[in-house]
Specification:
It is found in: Membrane. Pfam families: MFS_1 (PF07690). It comes from Hibiscus sabdariffa (roselle). The structure is a single chain. The protein is globular. It has a two-stranded antiparallel sheet. Strands 3-4 form a two-stranded antiparallel sheet. By secondary structure, the chain is an all-alpha fold. Helix 5 runs antiparallel to helix 7, helix 5 packs antiparallel against helix 10 and helix 15 packs parallel to helix 18. The protein has one domain: Growth Hormone, Chain: A (Up-down Bundle), CATH 1.20.1250.
Length: about 500
């Protein structure tokens, strides 16, 4: 119940218990309560639609390459193009979320890229095929708005879970499209269309799905628990921030760059596998197109539990061991993902390859969820920029990996997969360098200085003049609500005299 200023009880404002920022402190998966759980379902469904569109081509590549006379280099370039477009789009999306809100930012990008999915049906050359894959890939930047939205709706105890489930279920699109597109293609061909026409018609399905998801976000979504950015700014309940300051505090926080590198070799690897795995099994083991698609789909479909599992694990470790527990778990899981990636490139039988691929998928996707269990705590003021940097890092990792190991015929795919596993292990090591003064790092505890508090860390993003205007108040609330990142052993200590205890409403 909420308590009014005169002490009288009023009706609850939210269906879920919330903290002092009105972020939900519980995550109820099967609820659609507004605004928290409704935002969750809108975010993952729209991101799922974008994933389906972006990776609709790979399961049909054996047909498309014959129709458009694509070489191995053409296919490699198109795969790289599909994930390179979102590199800067994700950084821009993060900034847009900070300034305009995740609802408008997400829906706008989805509507801008949906026509390109329709245009895939008229691709007539390697160049046009590369271009439609490039511009369709911009839609993957909706991942940033998904994670930003969840971080704006859910409190510290469950933010990793919310981010993990939303991101994981959205990533399911990469596996689902491996099943959907061959099925749609087969149905259209069975109706009477020739195969070189059937694959073109099939692209109308993901394009329509993507368009409808954007309208759903616009009509039913809400930026923050208390309303949309525009209304809150108009009423004075939310101050409009300056782009230059938001951007500056994001890009100068070294923790964001390390997480971007880490994410480049968990999510970036996932994108790479989505692009190559169906063709890999089709060519190496002489499988039918549909069979290769089913095997490839199992990699992406593992997201239904693997990435959410990473988010849940991050919250569990955070509750018990604080931020240090989140970091250690991320490094361990991602390193194991690299080990199984190396093994995947070494096994020679179909059954062993499928088994190792499934185990590998669980670790590498769980690492994605674990990464975004840390991201919301790096910066309060520049959350969108940090999310965009990290998300963009995933795309950079995919581009670099495909350029080095899967472009042309320099390496066989099995050799490329092995080398990619080594890259995963190496690029996880910089996690050792992440340190929060108030919580510590993987090898060091928190600073003993009296100024090493949550309030000091998050207030450092605001100038004295901005504090005088009261612009820092939301960060102050967030600092108080993130105090539990000290871990169970120290969270019970007495709160500072200037702190406000967490409040459930």
């Amino acid at each position: 119940m909420e308590i009014s200023s005169n002490g009288a009880e009023t009706q609850p404002k939210f269906a879920l218990p919330v903290d002092s920022e009105h972020k939900a402190t519980e995550f109820r998966l099967f609820s659609a309560a507004a605004p928290h759980m409704r935002a969750f379902h809108l975010s993952w469904v729209s991101f799922f639609a974008c994933f389906v569109s972006t990776f609709a081509a790979p399961p049909l590549l054996p047909i498309i390459r014959d129709n458009l006379n694509l070489t191995a280099t053409d296919i490699g370039n198109a795969g790289i193009a599909s994930v390179s477009g979102a590199v800067f789009a994700r950084l821009a999306m993060g900034t847009a979320c900070d300034l305009f809100g995740p609802r408008l930012a997400s829906a706008s990008l989805i509507l801008l890229t949906a026509p390109v999915v329709f245009f895939t049906s008229i691709a007539s050359s390697p160049v046009s095929f590369l271009l439609v894959r490039f511009f369709t890939g911009f839609s993957l930047a909706t991942f940033v708005s998904t994670q930003f939205w969840m971080s704006s709706m859910f409190s510290a105890p469950v933010v990793g879970t919310a981010n993990g489930v939303a991101g994981g279920w959205g990533n399911l699109g990469g596996g689902a499209t491996q099943l959907i597109m061959p099925l749609v293609f087969g149905l259209i061909r069975d109706i009477g269309a020739v195969k070189f026409t059937a694959w073109r018609i099939a692209f109308f399905i993901p394009a329509l799905f993507q368009t409808l998801s954007a309208f759903a976000v616009l009509l039913f979504g809400q930026d923050l628990p208390d309303g949309n950015y525009k209304r809150l700014q108009k009423s004075g309940d939310k101050q409009k921030d300056k782009f230059s300051r938001v951007f500056y505090h994001g890009i100068t926080n070294y923790r964001g760059w390390i997480l971007a590198l880490t994410y480049g070799y968990c999510f970036g690897v996932e994108l790479t596998i989505d692009n190559i795995i169906a063709e890999y099994f089709y060519d190496r083991f002489n499988l039918k197109l549909h069979t290769a698609g089913i095997i490839a789909a199992s990699f992406g479909l593992a997201n239904i539990i693997s990435r959410p599992g990473g988010g849940i694990l991050s919250d569990a470790m955070g509750k018990r061991f604080g931020m240090r527990g989140r970091l250690w778990t991320l490094w361990t899981v991602q390193t194991l993902g690299g080990v199984f990636c190396i093994i995947l490139g070494q096994v020679n039988s179909l059954s062993a390859s499928v088994a190792v691929m499934i185990i590998f998928s669980f670790f590498v996707q769980a690492a994605c969820g674990l990464t975004f269990g840390v991201v919301p705590f790096v910066s309060r003021r520049s959350l969108g920029v940090i999310s965009g940097m990290t998300g963009g890092g995933g795309n950079v990792g995919a581009v670099v990996t495909q350029l080095i190991f899967f472009k042309g015929s320099r390496y066989s795919k099995e050799t490329g997969i092995t080398l990619m596993g080594i890259m995963i292990i190496c690029c996880s090591l910089p996690l050792f360098l992440i340190y929060f003064p108030q919580w510590g790092g993987m090898f060091c505890g928190p600073s003993s200085a009296k100024t090493a508090t949550e309030e000091d860390y998050y207030m450092s993003e605001w100038s004295s003049n901005e504090k005088d205007k009261g612009l820092h108040e939301a960060s102050l609330k967030f600092a108080d609500n993130s105090r539990r990142e000290r871990g169970r052993s120290v969270h019970s200590q007495t709160l500072p005299s200037n702190a406000t205890p967490p409040a459930d409403v």
